[in-house]
């Protein structure tokens, strides 16, 4: 929960915090494991050039997501280790540089499913260390300055704009790479990604005083790991928060199923698939901005119920889609109805963090995310191929989202009774 003794922030300091945090959030979302600029080109290399089926591609994603299932371990490392004694900045410098090196070296290897699998595993490890630092930093700032709602809005707003750009560029890039040989396409993609990762490493060299002053991350104190883990396990608020997050991301009607449905049934191009995803994420931006405005005026409890109620209906417009252009139109209400829920759920995760274990808790959330996304994706491809097709996947997704409503009743009322800027003293 937010700290009762949150220090006062001047307007320039608040702007600096939001700008620096936003820059890191945007950069990492641009290369996110599930929606970064590399995702669409790589998926179509596997689909069109290496000829994987929908189920085979889902299994590739499932196994390649192994590091993400262990995200909580990366968060624990973040809470107890400071690379180069630079705190979270050390993670951006070290693992951004390593990721750039991996992409650059693998760009010149023979392209096989195994090669791509190994490269994705290594990049995932580097990314998750940077992701844990970003999550830990954002949640620490949100609690320290009683601005969890603003950090959630920033995370979703900046991250979504970055994802929109990444997916649009990824779709266009995929069309261009289709004209190249398999080796040429992968080499070009990997060299581009190496450059992006190098830029992230350079962001770690910056050290705004307003962001890092008083966080104590450069020289973390010695702590009892087992005692901290015991404290985490006994912290009840994490359980409903993580359960809600897991249910929200367990969506069998999206990802591989939707890609194959649009491509094979509605005859959408690579670019249109990228456009669909871009529109979907862009449509959520207004509700993220709205959440940032509402978070200081209404309690999180109110926003949770409102977001969850709208979120249940999110995938239903896809039942009325009969063309690729129709899917692009449907992406607008789908994105709008999900934005408020996503922002509210991340706000809840930040508030549920035990003090000093922000990295561990937030990366537990991303472990849940990886498990939900990949196993939901695998179940969805099974439904799609053998048990009712795309309609069954949409109905299953809607029913899963409906389970979030009773789960909100399990969240401690004190945790969500306040708006941004109000403190309850809970940690």
Walk me through the structure.
This protein has helices at 11-30, 39-49, 54-64, 66-69, 71-80, 88-106, 113-144, 148-177, 182-203, 209-212, 225-233, 238-249, 256-265, 270-294, 300-311, 324-352, 358-386, 389-402, 404-408. The chain has one domain: Growth Hormone, Chain: A (Up-down Bundle), CATH 1.20.1250. α12 packs parallel to α17 (358-386). The longest helix has 32 residues, at 113-144. It is 72% helix and 0% strand. The mean pLDDT is 89. It has 427 residues and is mainly alpha-helical.
Helices and strands, with pairings:
Blueprint: H1 11-30, H2 39-49, H3 54-64, H4 66-69, H5 71-80, H6 88-106, H7 113-144, H8 148-177, H9 182-203, H10 209-212, H11 225-233, H12 238-249, H13 256-265, H14 270-294, H15 300-311, H16 324-352, H17 358-386, H18 389-402, H19 404-408
Outline, from the CA principal axes?
globular
Order of helices and strands: HHHHHHHHHHHHHHHHHHH
Span between termini:
5 Å
Largest β-sheet summary = none
CATH architecture: Up-down Bundle
Query: Can you count the helices?
Result: 19
Strand-pairing-aware structural class: mainly alpha
- Roughly what percent helix? over 70%
**Rounded Rg:** 21 Å
How many structural units, i.e. domains?
1
Strand content: under 5%
Full CATH superfamily name:
MFS general substrate transporter like domains
In total, the number of strands is: 0
Per CATH, the class reads Mainly Alpha
